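Student: I would love a firmer grasp of how sequence relates to backbone shape in proteins. I am handing you a single protein, as its sequence and its fold in token form. I am told such tokens are a discrete way to write the fold. I hope you can help me see how the letters and the tokens relate. Take your time, and here it is.
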Amino acid sequence: MRTFAENIQPVSQQDGESSASMKAGYNPEGSDLAAVRTITSLLLFALSAAVSFPQEDFRSWQITGGSAANLHYSALDQINKSNVGRLRAAWTYDSGDAYPNSDVQCNPIMADGVIYVTTAKLRVVALNAASGKQIWSFDTGNDRAPHPNRGVTYWTDGKQARILVTIGHDLFSLDAKTGKPDAAFGSKGTVDLRTAFDKPLEDVSLTVTSPGVIYQDLLILGSSVAETLPATAGDIRAYNVRTGKLQWTFHTIPHPGETGYETWPEGEWKNSGAANNWAGMAVDNQRGLVYVPTGSAAFDFYGADRHGDDLFANTLLCLDAATGARKWHFQAIRHDVWDLDFPAAPTLITVNHGGQPVDAVAQAGKSGYIYVLNRETGESLFPLRERPVPASTVDGELLAKSEPVPEKPEPFVRQTLTEDMATTRTEAAHQAVLSQMKSLSFGSLFIPASLQGTVFFPGLAGGAEWGGAAYDPQTHLYYINANELGWIVRLVPAESAQHFAKASQIYRARCATCHGPDRKGAPPEYPALDKASAHLTAAQISAILHTGGGRMPSFASLGEPAIAALQAFLLTNADERVEVKMRRTASPALKYAVEGYQKFLDPDGYPATTPPWGTLSAINLDTGSYAWKIPFGQYPELAASGMKDTGTENHGGGVVTAGGLLFIGATHYDNKFRAFDKRTGKLLWETTLPFACNATPSVYQMNGKEYVVLAAGGGRDRPSGGLFIAFALP
């Protein structure tokens, strides 16, 4: 461990600097009506809190997101608006696990005085919560290619305590005190998640990027799977936390006789994949319900093989947590070809609706819409309307004619791209972007991919992203940070590797869709491979080609000569001609693939649209009205030249506290960690971190002292680190 505390100097925000960027015409503290609404909200919440959150006092951080309800809320108030300017780094832990373009997304948890985190290289580390000193570290010992990981799950029965974590396709149960695998769990402390599928192991490719949730003695898990075919189905599974035995499975691509089977072509459950939960879940322990958001079906951008609405893709599922039985579902996107996943775990809230407290679930989307649904019935609390969808120009594609969107709240990102939004940063950049736009298809949110090339806006990594929202039960304000960055998606005729082919041909046919013909990818979602030898070993490349992981399918079916040739091609550019097995799979070959993933940028690498490029919003979910909205983040070099408050790409969420504060890192280019007045959006304190915080912070108390801890990992084509930093008052 080494400390960077001396390098972290807080900077107080001058009064009024952020107020100019607040949404004009709304002052929540200066309105009598707003005050009455706030008092009413508090009274109604007091009446309903004992029902909504019977076992949670919101003063601990034992669960990712702070609570089973995933509020990102802390009832601690030792750090508050009056003293946040005195905040200092209390301890720093350097994991030493950073590597080029690594990315730490972990939300730390704290139980019994111990902080538990995952590092960039997928070690699990236990730290003393008061000092940051390492207690133990667990490494699988396998040479794995790292994948995104957002932390661990803690379980205890009061006598024993376990840390549950998935590394690759393996689920581990570790003794919370020692970090040693639990011999009674699975096979010597490990369960291979692929064994849950009735397929050969080499045909199942998955990882778990977000921690599972606990209901009684069950661990409920989603998965991250390939987004191209062949892909694994995104089934939701529950495992016994004591034994590792599979307890129940919910099929997100329905089997014959199951609800939703008719929304797919007959037998498609054998062929298709995805419709997976990679974003996390929330649990209502009192009702025994788990709320599960899902993503799109594979392939993301062309669905000629899956005509129909494709339940349960792009759906918020409400399941019986004990059995996996469906209670209700809400599908936000029918037949998704825009990759409009539900990107974050939902938030279980209590709102005032029709003069009564109503337990609800709020789910933000990459589309920029927030769906507020009755927690028991799935009924939307705000009216829904059907938004028309333009027909696809690509042969074989058949889209839904409309998609349901709520009338309130208004979307928190812009929904339509026009020529008027071409960047004005410089005249040269403006003209270059306009010229590029003339060659592309663009417009509304639901314009589909095309052979010409389509700008998806607000983009594949936003509005909302995996950091998720924070909700304040005191004020009923919902805080969401968002991205507005277009991506260019172009469909091209799919290539097939021949029976005999060079390694470069195999790469173009099987890898270029995600990692690009030039191997530069679109990090971190699609890692660059042009310098693979700098951060991946031959063993790691071989392992992931054999087993896949996350968005990437297994390529074991290509055969050993082809895998060896790809490995050599990525490490040394050797272009050997080899035999390709081309073993047949159930998944049909699609006519079109996508030509890499390309951000919509100007010639200098900045977003091609006018700002804001990132935002932070506070929305009253009683009314659906905005309390405030500001640009979020800046590029230091642009700010220095006078172009401030542009907003930037941001990843990771915020935490709201009873001390009147909203803590959030997330902004990728300025490395800032900030504290805002939660009611007004005024910036009260900020500090510059050694590396960007692309994760959600946590708030906990140890020995009577309140701490705010975060991961500072950087990466994403920026400097990488492996720090965990805890802040406290002197």
The domain at 10-281+460-484+613-728 is CATH 2.140.10.10 (Methanol Dehydrogenase; Chain A). The chain has seven helices and 44 strands. Residues 428 and 603 are 9 Å apart (CA to CA).
